[in-house]
Amino acid sequence: MLKDIDTVLYTKEEIAQKVRELGAKISQEYKPEDEVVVIGVLKGANVFLGDLIREISFPVYIDFMAVSSYGNSTESSGVVRILKDLDLDIEGKHVLIIEDIVDTGLTLKYLTENLKSRKIAGLKICTLLDKPKRRKCDLNIDYIGFEIPDEFIVGYGIDYAEKYRNLPYIAILKKEVYQS
Ligand code: IMP
Ligand code: MG
Questions:
Q1: Does residue 103 have an active-site annotation?
Q2: Atom of ligand 1 minimally distant from the CA of 160
Q3: According to the model, what pLDDT value does residue 2 have?
Protein backbone atom coordinates (compact mmCIF):
# COMPACT_ATOMS: atom_id res chain seq x y z
CA MET A 1 0.00 0.00 0.00
CA LEU A 2 2.82 2.38 0.88
CA LYS A 3 4.08 2.61 -2.68
CA ASP A 4 0.77 4.22 -3.71
CA ILE A 5 0.98 7.01 -1.10
CA ASP A 6 2.17 10.46 -2.12
CA THR A 7 2.20 12.41 1.18
CA VAL A 8 0.92 11.75 4.68
CA LEU A 9 -1.32 14.69 5.61
CA TYR A 10 -2.21 13.70 9.19
CA THR A 11 -0.59 11.09 11.40
CA LYS A 12 -2.40 8.72 13.73
CA GLU A 13 -1.53 11.01 16.67
CA GLU A 14 -2.71 14.19 14.92
CA ILE A 15 -6.01 12.51 14.04
CA ALA A 16 -6.49 11.29 17.62
CA GLN A 17 -5.89 14.81 18.95
CA LYS A 18 -8.42 16.29 16.51
CA VAL A 19 -11.00 13.62 17.36
CA ARG A 20 -10.60 14.43 21.06
CA GLU A 21 -11.18 18.14 20.33
CA LEU A 22 -14.27 17.43 18.24
CA GLY A 23 -15.67 15.07 20.89
CA ALA A 24 -15.15 17.68 23.60
CA LYS A 25 -16.86 20.38 21.51
CA ILE A 26 -19.84 18.15 20.69
CA SER A 27 -20.13 17.09 24.34
CA GLN A 28 -20.68 20.73 25.37
CA GLU A 29 -23.29 21.61 22.79
CA TYR A 30 -26.24 19.41 23.59
CA LYS A 31 -28.63 19.68 26.54
CA PRO A 32 -28.89 16.80 29.02
CA GLU A 33 -32.45 16.04 27.93
CA ASP A 34 -31.58 15.82 24.21
CA GLU A 35 -31.79 12.36 22.69
CA VAL A 36 -29.00 12.22 20.14
CA VAL A 37 -28.69 9.76 17.27
CA VAL A 38 -25.26 9.63 15.67
CA ILE A 39 -25.61 8.55 12.04
CA GLY A 40 -22.52 7.32 10.23
CA VAL A 41 -22.35 7.44 6.46
CA LEU A 42 -20.97 4.07 5.37
CA LYS A 43 -18.41 2.95 4.74
CA GLY A 44 -15.92 5.80 4.93
CA ALA A 45 -17.07 7.36 8.22
CA ASN A 46 -16.99 4.08 10.13
CA VAL A 47 -13.49 4.43 11.61
CA PHE A 48 -13.97 8.10 12.50
CA LEU A 49 -17.35 7.37 14.12
CA GLY A 50 -15.87 4.55 16.19
CA ASP A 51 -13.23 6.86 17.64
CA LEU A 52 -15.44 9.96 17.95
CA ILE A 53 -18.30 8.41 19.94
CA ARG A 54 -15.83 7.39 22.65
CA GLU A 55 -14.92 11.08 23.06
CA ILE A 56 -18.56 12.13 23.54
CA SER A 57 -19.51 12.36 27.19
CA PHE A 58 -23.29 11.72 26.98
CA PRO A 59 -25.15 8.61 25.80
CA VAL A 60 -25.88 8.43 22.07
CA TYR A 61 -27.82 6.14 19.79
CA ILE A 62 -25.84 4.88 16.80
CA ASP A 63 -27.09 4.07 13.35
CA PHE A 64 -25.73 3.94 9.81
CA MET A 65 -26.81 4.82 6.31
CA ALA A 66 -25.20 3.71 3.10
CA VAL A 67 -25.55 5.82 -0.02
CA SER A 68 -24.10 5.62 -3.46
CA SER A 69 -23.69 8.41 -5.91
CA TYR A 70 -23.84 7.61 -9.58
CA GLY A 71 -20.92 8.67 -11.73
CA ASN A 72 -17.24 7.87 -11.98
CA SER A 73 -15.31 6.77 -8.93
CA THR A 74 -13.47 9.98 -7.97
CA GLU A 75 -16.30 12.49 -8.62
CA SER A 76 -19.69 12.77 -7.02
CA SER A 77 -22.59 13.22 -9.43
CA GLY A 78 -25.19 14.58 -7.05
CA VAL A 79 -27.61 11.78 -7.86
CA VAL A 80 -27.75 9.86 -4.61
CA ARG A 81 -29.32 6.49 -3.95
CA ILE A 82 -29.97 5.11 -0.46
CA LEU A 83 -28.51 1.60 -0.25
CA LYS A 84 -29.14 1.13 3.46
CA ASP A 85 -31.61 3.16 5.46
CA LEU A 86 -31.75 3.63 9.24
CA ASP A 87 -32.82 0.86 11.61
CA LEU A 88 -33.88 3.29 14.36
CA ASP A 89 -36.90 5.55 14.45
CA ILE A 90 -35.42 9.06 14.68
CA GLU A 91 -38.64 11.05 15.13
CA GLY A 92 -38.19 13.66 17.88
CA LYS A 93 -34.46 12.99 18.17
CA HIS A 94 -31.41 15.16 17.50
CA VAL A 95 -29.50 13.83 14.51
CA LEU A 96 -25.74 14.18 14.25
CA ILE A 97 -24.45 13.04 10.86
CA ILE A 98 -20.87 11.78 10.81
CA GLU A 99 -19.09 11.97 7.47
CA ASP A 100 -15.54 11.25 6.37
CA ILE A 101 -15.15 13.90 3.66
CA VAL A 102 -17.35 16.66 2.32
CA ASP A 103 -16.34 17.36 -1.25
CA THR A 104 -19.01 18.80 -3.56
CA GLY A 105 -21.44 18.55 -0.65
CA LEU A 106 -24.09 16.98 -2.88
CA THR A 107 -24.26 13.71 -0.95
CA LEU A 108 -24.87 15.44 2.38
CA LYS A 109 -27.25 17.95 0.82
CA TYR A 110 -29.42 15.07 -0.28
CA LEU A 111 -29.08 13.20 3.02
CA THR A 112 -29.91 16.22 5.18
CA GLU A 113 -33.01 17.05 3.11
CA ASN A 114 -34.10 13.44 3.42
CA LEU A 115 -33.54 13.24 7.18
CA LYS A 116 -35.14 16.64 7.87
CA SER A 117 -38.39 15.33 6.42
CA ARG A 118 -38.60 12.74 9.23
CA LYS A 119 -39.84 15.06 12.04
CA ILE A 120 -36.53 15.24 13.88
CA ALA A 121 -35.72 17.70 16.67
CA GLY A 122 -32.56 19.00 15.01
CA LEU A 123 -29.74 18.14 12.67
CA LYS A 124 -26.03 18.79 12.80
CA ILE A 125 -23.16 17.65 10.61
CA CYS A 126 -19.69 16.62 11.68
CA THR A 127 -17.07 15.83 9.06
CA LEU A 128 -13.47 14.84 9.62
CA LEU A 129 -12.29 16.37 6.35
CA ASP A 130 -13.59 19.23 4.24
CA LYS A 131 -12.60 20.29 0.74
CA PRO A 132 -14.33 23.72 0.70
CA LYS A 133 -12.97 24.69 -2.73
CA ARG A 134 -14.95 21.89 -4.34
CA ARG A 135 -18.36 22.77 -2.95
CA LYS A 136 -21.22 22.81 -5.46
CA CYS A 137 -24.08 23.63 -3.09
CA ASP A 138 -24.91 25.43 0.13
CA LEU A 139 -24.23 23.22 3.12
CA ASN A 140 -23.90 24.22 6.74
CA ILE A 141 -21.31 22.04 8.49
CA ASP A 142 -21.28 22.32 12.28
CA TYR A 143 -18.03 20.52 13.09
CA ILE A 144 -15.01 20.21 10.79
CA GLY A 145 -11.83 18.33 11.66
CA PHE A 146 -9.42 19.49 8.96
CA GLU A 147 -9.78 21.61 5.83
CA ILE A 148 -7.82 19.91 3.09
CA PRO A 149 -6.72 20.84 -0.43
CA ASP A 150 -8.33 19.43 -3.55
CA GLU A 151 -6.44 16.14 -3.60
CA PHE A 152 -7.64 12.57 -3.52
CA ILE A 153 -7.36 11.26 0.04
CA VAL A 154 -7.23 7.75 1.50
CA GLY A 155 -6.80 6.13 4.91
CA TYR A 156 -8.52 6.15 8.33
CA GLY A 157 -11.62 4.53 6.80
CA ILE A 158 -11.46 6.38 3.48
CA ASP A 159 -10.94 4.36 0.32
CA TYR A 160 -10.09 4.38 -3.31
CA ALA A 161 -11.83 1.46 -5.05
CA GLU A 162 -12.38 -0.12 -1.60
CA LYS A 163 -8.66 -0.14 -0.79
CA TYR A 164 -6.51 1.74 1.77
CA ARG A 165 -9.27 2.00 4.40
CA ASN A 166 -7.14 0.44 7.13
CA LEU A 167 -4.23 2.85 6.87
CA PRO A 168 -3.92 4.46 10.32
CA TYR A 169 -3.07 7.87 8.83
CA ILE A 170 -4.69 10.20 6.26
CA ALA A 171 -2.72 10.52 3.05
CA ILE A 172 -2.78 11.85 -0.50
CA LEU A 173 -2.98 9.04 -3.03
CA LYS A 174 -0.55 9.18 -5.95
CA LYS A 175 -2.36 10.46 -9.04
CA GLU A 176 -1.03 7.63 -11.19
CA VAL A 177 -3.02 5.15 -9.08
CA TYR A 178 -6.36 6.53 -10.27
CA GLN A 179 -5.41 8.33 -13.49
CA SER A 180 -4.13 5.31 -15.41
P1 IMP B 1 -19.64 14.78 -2.18
O2 IMP B 1 -21.06 14.42 -2.46
O3 IMP B 1 -18.94 15.27 -3.44
O4 IMP B 1 -19.47 15.74 -1.05
O5 IMP B 1 -18.91 13.44 -1.87
C6 IMP B 1 -18.65 13.01 -0.63
C7 IMP B 1 -18.18 11.57 -0.65
O8 IMP B 1 -17.28 11.32 -1.74
C9 IMP B 1 -17.39 11.30 0.60
O10 IMP B 1 -18.22 10.82 1.62
C11 IMP B 1 -16.42 10.26 0.14
O12 IMP B 1 -17.00 8.99 0.28
C13 IMP B 1 -16.19 10.56 -1.31
N14 IMP B 1 -14.95 11.33 -1.47
C15 IMP B 1 -14.81 12.65 -1.70
N16 IMP B 1 -13.52 13.01 -1.77
C17 IMP B 1 -12.81 11.89 -1.55
C18 IMP B 1 -11.42 11.61 -1.46
O19 IMP B 1 -10.54 12.48 -1.59
N20 IMP B 1 -11.09 10.31 -1.20
C21 IMP B 1 -12.00 9.32 -1.04
N22 IMP B 1 -13.31 9.54 -1.10
C23 IMP B 1 -13.72 10.80 -1.35
MG1 MG C 1 -18.49 8.88 2.29
A1: yes
A2: 21
A3: 87
